[in-house]
Amino acid sequence: MVINEPNSPPAIALSSLAEHVQQGLSQTPKTLSSKYFYDETGSQLFQQIMALPEYYPTRTELAIFRAQGAAIGQALGAGTGPGEPLAVVELGAGDGLKTKLLLRELLAARPGAAPTYVPVDISPSALEGLVATLRQELPALPTEPLAAEYGAALRELATRPGAKAVLFLGSNIGNFAPAEQQQFLAALAEPLTPADRLLVGFDLRKDPRRIRAAYDDAAGVTAAFNLNLLRRLNTELGADFQLADWQHFPDYDPSTGAMRSWLVSRRAQTVRVGALGGQAFEFAAWEAIHTENSYKFSLPQIEALAAGAGLRVVEVFEDGNHDFADVVLAVG
Fold it and tell me: Rounded CA gap, 85 and 77, in Å?
């Protein structure tokens, strides 16, 4: 039990977002996590980004699923016997556009033993929308949505009977820093059995100009997506960011495969956050807040990354231009 001193102010119960902002804006250099991009407006903007001519990852991975979905489904179910249960666990399910192609293939390949789809997302509203569409489009598919952080979801599912096919698509692995990539994969591998499979999407290295353009589109949608993070802090935490005083800046380093994005302050300014008791954060002119990593990979890098996490590469599915790879992994 914590007892306040007689004349001390009561402790403020902070949300996880408020705690993150307090920590991220108090350090040097300042940083905010890309996982907070996805409020309702951010999710809508990302849907627009995926349709942009410059943004190749979504349509490229979708093409892989359309052309090779049956082979991917076979690779994911290779650890199960006839009639054995299979749970398809998708981390960060989103709208399920690509996954529906794979689920149709699995339903066709497993008559009498339909897989159970377990979409995992931290947003209950996103899951509700996905489940509603699946009931219409794939009524024969058992669906068990799970609103949870990824690690907690996998620990909960570890005791589930039968094999699991865990999906982490869209090259979301690239949002982690290199050391965190291996730690994350190792955490995903820890509850897996030899019968389980892990399918991870990797954006491959390519012309640096194409990569940079994908994160700095001519229509400015990606800029609006990045700036929406500040709007969210204004709405949810009572911050007073003036969005016109900030600009989106992306850059790609071909020597490391690091695509990074920042929000840059156009002038010296002070920002206060109401949810933090009006705490003030000072920004110098042209000081930046780092908001996103999106690392790109080579195939040897992927093999080394998997091995470091205790996984082995089972099969690699690429598009014809070698822009993207969906990689099936198993515990080593």
Answer: 10
